[in-house]
TrEMBL record:
Pfam families listed in its UniProt record: Pkinase (PF00069)
InterPro entries: Kinase-like_dom_sf (IPR011009), Prot_kinase_dom (IPR000719), Protein_kinase_ATP_BS (IPR017441), Ser_Thr_dual-spec_kinase (IPR050494)
Superkingdom of the organism of origin: Eukaryota
Residue numbers binding ATP: K34
A GO CC term attached to the entry: nucleus
Keywords: ATP-binding, Kinase, Nucleotide-binding, Serine/threonine-protein kinase, Transferase
Stretches assigned to the Protein kinase domain: 5-332
Gene Ontology molecular function terms on file: ATP binding; protein serine/threonine kinase activity; protein tyrosine kinase activity
Protein name, entry field: Protein kinase domain-containing protein
Keyword Nucleotide-binding: yes
Higher taxonomy: Eukaryota, Metazoa, Chordata, Craniata, Vertebrata
């Protein structure tokens, strides 16, 4: 590969190909190389990712909390993207703590970085479309507070290019409007951010499941069903209806088809306003009642992000930004 004399480690593998740690022989720096398979569909996806990354060149990666991209090159039929080398993804970071969840004092700056990143993406009209802990990298796990960056823009797209029925994202992190085939925009990223926030605070996903049907069932159990006029606009609504006896209801009963493993998840079927963060009693803060106050603001923010009304302004970056301002004011 161009200027890369040695592959030092394989960092990950997916449907697209592999990510490898390589040594740049010109700078002697370790970098991350995303090697896309030569499959025509994968190569087309790589071209789309390069297009998005070119748009993001207008942003300062450090200021925007996004990965630094250093261009691409061809190695035979493979398309290789060059990125800065980061430490580990949030899934691994949470796993290192045995999935017990992070204290609020650690969750808060991470959410601040992610909100900042999504705000910057919105400023250039980009929908992230696949926000999840696996696509969020910790720069250095030994720093305090840790810094995070968004990576993997393979499914990102211009907001102006989104079409109803476009199915992107990962099961368990997609917004309801995406699953139902409704029009969506940057607000769908804020839903995903709310789910990432829950996972940071509790150590487990809020809505587990291997299929959209299971996930949407959990969402309706905790937050109710979207209005009928919204459901009727969904491209995929008939995939979720269960027989004529259901009328306008999306599901026939609350737990049909749910596996024992999923039903035993301690976080399932809790409304966001009922969530509590683990290990909060261990946080030491300098101002009175800061732990309780932080928890209340954190939960209120989750409630706003995980709102079913896709047209409501509450599911935007405004509420998490207000969280930061409120905490700062309370501390002063």
């Amino acid at each position: 590969m161009e200027h890369f004399g040695k592959v030092e480690a394989f960092l990950g593998e997916g449907g697209f190909g592999i990510v490898a740690k390589c040594r740049d022989t010109m700078t002697n720096r370790a970098v991350a190389i995303k090697v896309n398979k030569s499959d025509p569909d994968i190569l087309q996806q790589a071209k789309l990712e390069i297009f998005i990354l070119e748009q993001l060149r207008r942003l300062d990666p450090d200021a925007a909390n996004i990965v630094k991209w250093n261009g691409f090159f061809h190695d035979g039929e493979w398309v290789c993207l060059k990125f800065e080398l980061l430490d580990q993804c949030l899934w691994d970071y949470i796993g290192d703590r045995k999935n017990q969840g992070l204290p609020i004092s650690e969750v808060r700056p991470i959410l601040g970085h992610l909100t900042n990143a999504l705000s910057h993406l919105g400023s250039v009209g980009i929908v992230r479309a696949d926000l999840k802990p696996g696509n969020i990298m910790v720069v250095n796990r030994y720093e305090s507070p840790v810094k995070v960056r968004l990576i993997d823009f393979g499914l990102a797209c211009p907001a102006s290019a989104v079409m109803p029925g476009d199915r992107v994202g990962t099961v368990g992190y997609s917004a309801p409007e995406v699953m139902l085939g409704l029009p969506y925009n940057e607000a769908s990223d804020m839903w995903s951010l709310g789910l990432v926030a829950v996972e940071l605070g509790t150590g487990v996903p809020l809505y587990p499941g291997n299929e959209d049907y299971d996930v949407l069932k959990f969402i309706i159990e905790t937050q109710g069903q979207p209005p009928d006029h919204v459901l009727d606009s969904g491209v995929y609504i008939m995939m979720f209806r269960r027989g004529p006896e259901n009328g306008q209801r999306l599901f026939s009963s609350p737990c049909i088809g749910m596996s024992a493993e999923i039903s035993q998840n301690p976080v399932v079927f809790q409304h966001p306003s009922h969530l509590k963060c683990k290990r909060s009693e261990k946080i030491n803060c300098s101002f009175q009642n800061s732990v309780e106050f932080s928890q209340q603001v954190f939960v209120r923010t989750l409630h706003n992000n995980l709102h079913l009304n896709i047209h409501l302004i509450s599911r935007t970056h405004i509420h998490i930004l207000s969280l930061k301002k409120t905490l700062r004011k309370n501390k002063e």
